[in-house]
Amino acid sequence: MHISDGILSGPVLAAGFVGTAVIAGLTLRNMDMEEIPKVSVITAVFFVASLIHVPVGPSSVHLILNGLVGVVLGWRAFPAIMLGVILQAILFGHGGVSVIGANCVMLGGGALAAYGVWQLRHWFSLERKEVIFGALAGGSATLVSGMVLSLALVTTGEQFLVMAGAALAAHIPVMIIEAVVVGAAAGFLAKVRPHILAGNTAPALLGRPSA
Amino acid sequence: MPLDIDRFAHVGSPLQRWDPRFKLAALGVLVVAVALIKTIPVAAAALIGAVVLVSLACLPASFVSQGVKWVSLFLLPFLLIMPLSYPGEAAFHILGLPFAWEGFRLAVLIVVKALAIVLFAYAMFGSSRFDISMIALQHLKCPKVIVQMLLFTYRYIFVFLAEMRRMDVAMSARGFVKRADRRTLRVMGDFVGTLLVRSFERTERIYKAMLSKGYQGEFHTLVVFNATSKDLVKAVLILLGAALLFGVDVAGIFNRAELGWY
Question: Rounded to two decimals, what is the model's pTM?
Answer without folding.
Answer: 0.88
